[in-house]
Specification:
Blueprint (H helix, E strand, L loop, with lengths): L5 H21 L6 H8 L5 H5 L3 H24 L5 H17 L1 H14 L3 H18 L5 H21 L5 H13 L17 H14 L2
Helix pairs in contact: 1-2, 1-4, 1-6, 4-7, 5-8, 5-9, 5-10, 6-7, 7-8, 8-9
Length: 212
């Protein structure tokens, strides 16, 4: 991607967001220079100025998506101080992934591309590694991997079949996996009951979402 100042960078970001929106609506094959520029509200030549070809634009768009969603995963798991907090975080993550169909589509489009091309596979692996790393602050790598399998599988099942897998059943599954890990540990809560403000906010958000 070519870069030359803040205005140019803003245009490039608009192109990236436009490409992602097109993928959400109608898939990767629908992304064209003309359509991207139309969605972004920029001159027709803007996409070819910033990107030599559509492949580079789409790859950059997915890289932006992976960075954004990875940061949200990390925030979601931050501040856990108990099994209950971590279970809440897994349920909140699953709920977020299944209620935002646009992002679910982006994930599946990325995984489909990852099956064909190494550049996309590297992006998908980066996302997976960052998600597991966020959980490994509390549990072993093996447990983090099993939890990832649970939230990935639960997401697919809920998108396809609704909540046949109930929150209570999902909680039992996650708790069973956690209880297999004798090495799991959490930051100690201070005597004033204080977690960091970020941790408190994250826990409140998780519990509020879980109670809905």
């Amino acid at each position: 991607m070519k870069k030359s100042g803040s205005r140019s960078e803003a245009t490039a970001m608009a192109l990236i967001e436009a490409a992602l929106q097109i993928v959400r609506e109608s898939g990767v094959k629908s992304v064209t220079h003309r359509k991207v520029c139309s969605y972004a509200g920029v001159a027709l030549g803007s996409s070819t100025y910033h990107y030599e070809n559509l492949d580079n634009l789409i790859l950059d768009a997915f890289a932006h998506y992976v960075e954004d969603v990875s940061s949200r995963y990390e925030d979601n798991f931050a501040g856990a101080t108990s099994d209950d907090d971590l279970i809440d975080a897994v349920l909140q993550l699953t709920e977020a992934l299944t209620t935002d169909m646009g992002n679910a589509i982006l994930e599946w489009e990325l995984l489909a591309a990852a099956g064909r091309e190494t550049a996309y596979r590297a992006l998908a692996q980066k996302w997976s590694e960052r998600a597991r790393s966020a959980v490994q602050a509390y549990v072993s790598p093996q447990t983090a991997h099993m939890l990832e399998v649970i939230w990935d599988g639960a997401t697919v099942q809920r998108v396809l079949n609704g909540k046949r897998l109930t929150d209570a059943e999902l909680r039992r599954m996650v708790r069973a996996v956690l209880e297999l890990d004798d090495s799991r540990s959490y930051p100690k809560v201070k005597s004033d009951g204080g977690r960091s403000s970020k941790g408190k906010a994250a826990a409140r958000t998780r519990r509020a979402a879980a109670s809905r």
